[in-house]
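Input record (Table S2, row 231):
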Amino acid sequence: MSRKVAIVEDEAELAGLIEYNLTRSGFQPRIFGGEHGTLAALEDFQPDLIVLDVMLPGHDGFELCRRIRSGGTLSRVPVLFLTARSDEVDRVLGLEIGGDDYITKPFSPRELVARIKAHLRRSETDAAPESSEITLGPFLLDQAARRVFHAGKEVELTSTEFKLLEFFITHPGHAFSREQLLRQVWGEQHFVTPRTVDVHVRRLREQIEEKPDEPVFLATVRGFGYRFEAV
Ligand code: CA
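Output record (calcium ion complex):
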């Protein structure tokens, strides 16, 4: 599966150039304008890496990075800053911002692609050892074996149910809309509808909840979607 790269850059020409080069290198890029609402759009997209311009309309890239790092589903995604001035570099590398790297404008697209590849290799290596078993409350998720245990007992799951529960366990406390869950778990299969999510949630509840009608873990977020709580 090709890796998703978010390009947060308001200069359309530069963003297009980066997009073109990333596509050519086998990535799945998407451009974000950096205006208000970009963070929510990024959380929807769930990129593997974020290319983030410092100078954005609305708020600057530093502020956006701080918010990305402050929690939520993107807090560990590598952020590569695009800076126009060398005096911004100190801030990029400042620990409180949480950027992973920077590249100064003007840059060659080839260098940018090389840096992105290096970071994705690194984050893959970092993630490998801990991605196998995750404990959350009474749940143990074994990603390598694709099994979930609840209070020591194995939960019987179909492949899709596993993917849905895996997504919830790895994103606790965060509310997701049905559309977001469809994109994250089902991907680009267009024959599924938001109702599909409800059906799978109901099946999961029957497996993991003592009283499926009064769920403790898999909560309904009224008028929005669902949230997984580790109790
Ligand atoms: Ca800009």
